[in-house]
Amino acid sequence: MIRVCICGGGSLGLVTAGVLAQQDEVEVNLLTSKPHLWSHQIEVSDLNGRLYKGSVNIISDKAEKTVPHSDIILLCVPGFLIEKTLRDIAPYITTQAVGSIVSSTGFFFRAHEVFDKKAALFGFQRVPYIARVTEYGHSAQLLGYKTQLYIALENLPDSFATQWETWLNTPVAALHNYLEAALTNSNPLLHTARLFGMWHDWHEGITYSTQAKFYAEWDEYSAEQYIAMDTEFLALCKIVGVSVPSVLEYYESGDALSLARKLQSIQAFQSIDAPMKKTKQGWIPDFQSRYFTEDFPFGLQLVKDLAVKNNLKTPHIDKILSWGKQYL
Length: 328
Prior knowledge:
- The protein is α/β, with parallel strands linked by helices.
- The chain has 13 helices and 13 strands.
- The strands form two sheets. An eleven-stranded mixed β-sheet has the order 8-9-3-4-2-1-5-6-7-10-11, with helices on both faces.
- 42% of the residues are buried.
- The mean pLDDT is 95.
């Protein structure tokens, strides 16, 4: 029996816990700030009608009650909680492998500060699922799978990737180094480009009659911003020796228009709303959503910091980063 401790009780934490808990050889523990809202029996359903059902063993907000009783620690927390979570669990780490469900918000950089060079670390390049909570601590929806996952490993054998492949029922390949997982042109560029595309000319007093769809209504202008930032991002990757496919390659597109149409057409993305909130006057951008609080300061900012460190000019990234940070 392998014991996995999920850190974080949000949508990704719940879905990942549900998928893992169904495995016969996996025991799931949970470290969450809201243990009283969690059930020991959880359910996750996907769009194909598949139902994952499983039990969570230990549920606590105390690291000392969960981490020592686990073999693998998996962080499913937003960027601003990564360092705090790592420092909370550090006193109880002996031989456990510590990782993150996604690495683009600074996991490896913070982990290298908290742990010594012998620590067993791992991090996924992109999240394995699109997830939404149905009832907090009880049930969630798995809205989309990835066809391929990549994982960075430090002081762990390649067989560790194979283990996750079995659990997640998705091909998982080991990367060459942590920067390949830490640097991604997914959410840090994808989300921020779209936000800028929708609201770069927004100001107080502007309202909208309906809530926009984040992907289903993706436009050519947002795609142009995404491609422009990606060009600078790829230049940075070349400098630091990381190979990442361009967004046009990844989405099998030839230009901004075809990229916009591709993003519009992805079935798993159809129901995802833009981060907005309703007021008496109408709908406005929600600057407190994780699209803003996560992807600008803990995603795009990381790319910018590395660019500065390597003396690379990034005017398009600078423009969008500056725009987003004014609302934080």
